[in-house]
Amino acid sequence: MFSKKWNPDGKHVYITGGSTGLGLSLAQLLTKKGAHVSIVARNQDKLDKALASLEELRVNPSQILKAYSHSLDTASASTEALEAACHPFEGQAPDAVVTCAGGAAPGFFVELEEKDLFNGMQNNYWVQAWTAWAAAKKMAQQKKKGSKIVLVSSTLGLMSMLGWASYAPAKHALRGLADTLHSEMMLYGVSVSIFFPPTMSTPGLDQENKTKPAIVWKIEEGDGVLLTADQAAVSLWKGIEKGDAHITADFSTSLFRASGRGAMPRNNWILDGLYDFVAYIAVPFWRAGVDNQVRGHIQEHEEYLGKKGFYA
Amino acid sequence: MFSKKWNPDGKHVYITGGSTGLGLSLAQLLTKKGAHVSIVARNQDKLDKALASLEELRVNPSQILKAYSHSLDTASASTEALEAACHPFEGQAPDAVVTCAGGAAPGFFVELEEKDLFNGMQNNYWVQAWTAWAAAKKMAQQKKKGSKIVLVSSTLGLMSMLGWASYAPAKHALRGLADTLHSEMMLYGVSVSIFFPPTMSTPGLDQENKTKPAIVWKIEEGDGVLLTADQAAVSLWKGIEKGDAHITADFSTSLFRASGRGAMPRNNWILDGLYDFVAYIAVPFWRAGVDNQVRGHIQEHEEYLGKKGFYA
Questions:
Q1: Complex-level ipTM
Q2: pLDDT tens digits, residue range B170-207?
Q3: What reaction does this enzyme carry out catalytically (chains A, B) (predicted)?
Q4: A218: closest CA of chain B, how far (Å)
Q5: Catalytic residue numbers of A?
Q6: CATH architecture of B12-307
Q7: Contact (Cβ atoms closer than 8 angstroms) between residue B27 and residue B85
Q8: Which of B14, B68, B125, B167 is catalytic?
Q9: From the CB of residue B94, how many other CB atoms can be counted at a distance below 10 Å?
C-alpha cells in the first residue's frame, strides 16, 4: 500500500481549515499538482479570497475547485459539510481528507475557566475528529480502497510544557485517534496519517499570541526562525505522498516523533534510530533548561497571581 | 523534590473512582500506611462497602476515612466534591489527589455514534481533568508545596490499535494534560504524575468486554495473565512514592513508556535506555503481527458489516 508514491492528479482532496494558514497552503500546492480541491471553513470572505487564489493556480480546465462555508462543530455538521463537497463527484467520498482546522489559546491552568478547557478540546480535537468520523464511514461504506485520512496535530501532540493545558491534551487526543485509525482503517484499505507541525508564522499564531503568558514566550524564544505555512505544507505533502504514519516538518519535532513513536511504524529505520539516539541524549538537557526557566519564574508568577487576587 | 520517598502517614489522599477496581485497591493500600483517605464515586452501595473495607484496615484511631457520593462530570461538580472532602481538614487541599475514575467501551469507529465518542471523552478525560483542575487551583491558592496530582491513563495512552477510538484519544489527552502540568505545576511546587496501567481484571473490564469486537479480543489474547487491581495499585504506589513522572506496572507498557517518553524525565537512565532499545527492535515485530491479524480479518469484517446493513 505504501510502496509507491501517491499522485494527486485528478484526485479529490477535501481540506478543512482550508481558507487560511497551513490548510490554504496545502490546497494551493495540491491545486498546482492537478487535484480537485474542496476547502471548508466558516468565514465566507476568507473562503472567497482563498478560492480565487486556487483558481489562479489551476493547471487544467477540468479541475473542480470549490469552497464551502460550514460549521464542523458536531458529527452531523461535519457530515453535512463532507456530503456537500462530495456532491460534484456523484456522492463519491474524497480520495483524501485533510483536517487542518484548529487554533490555540495558551494560558495558566489555574486561571483557565471550564469554557476555556472545553473550547480547547472542541476546536482542536472534535472539529477534526468529526470530519475523520464522517470520512471514515463514507470511505468504508463505499469501499474506497487506497483513500487517505490525514489529521493535523502539533509538536504539542508529542510533548508538552506549561501554558498548553487547553491545547496539548486535544493534540495528544488526535494522535491517539490517528494511531487507532491507522490500525483500524486497514480493515477498509484506507491509510491514516497525522502531521505534527511546529509553531508556524500564520494568522493562527497571531491569535494564539494574544493569550500567551510571558514565560511561555520566553521558552519559545529558543525555537529560532518559524516555518511559514507554505514550508510546512511542503513537508505535510511529502509525508502524505510517502504514506508516513507520523509526519513532521522540523528537526526538533522529528526528535520527539522518533523518541515518542509508541507503536507506530518508523518513517526511516536508520534516520529514526539516529533521531531517537540524539533525543535520548539531548532532550533531557532541553527539559532541564525549560524546568530551570519555570523554577526561576516562581517568584514573579506569585506576584502576578497575587495582583490578580488569586490568593484572596 | 524527588530525592526522598514520599511518606503518606498522616497525609490526606483524595481518590476518585475509589469505590472499586484500582481506586479501591490504592485506597486500601494507603489506609494500611496510615493515610487519611477520601474516596469519591457515584454509587452509594459500593461506596459503603468500600468504606467498610477501609475501616477494617485502619492502623490508628485518628485516621479520617470518608466516602463521598458525587458526580465529577463538570468543573463545578468536581470542585464541590473536592471541597466536601477538604471540609474535615479545615478546608486544606489534600496532600495527594489520584484520579482513577473512568471506563472503556470499545467498538468499531464506523459503528460508533456521536454520543459514544463524546461519552468516551467525558468518562475518560473530563472526569479526571476537572478534578485535576479543581485540585491544581486549590493547591496553588493555598501554596501547598510538596503536594501531588496523579492522573490515571492506560497503556492505550501511549499507543493504540483498532477498536479504541472512543477511549485511546481520551487516555492520550490525559497524558498531554499530565505532561503540561508536570512542567506548569513546578510554579507551585506541586508534582504531577501519570499512571499507564495495562488491562486489569476488574469490574471495569467486565463492563468493557460487553462491547469489545471479536478481533480486539483475539489480539488481546497475546497479553497473557492480567494484573489484578491490587498488583497495579502496588506499582502505582511505588511510582508515587518515588515521584516518577510516568508510572507503569508491566513490561509491555514499560517498553511503550520508554520508547514514547516525549520530553518527560526517565524513571531510570539505564533501564529506560534498555527498554527503549528493546522496543526499537521488538515493537515493529509486535505491530507487524497485529497488522497481519487486522488484514486477515478484512473479509470477515465485510461480511459482519454487510449483515448489519452498513453498505445498504
A1: 0.95
A2: 999 999 999 999 999 999 999 999 999 999 988 888 88
A3: sphinganine + NADP(+) = 3-oxosphinganine + NADPH + H(+)
A4: 14
A5: 167, 171
A6: 3-Layer(aba) Sandwich (3.40)
A7: no
A8: B167
A9: 26
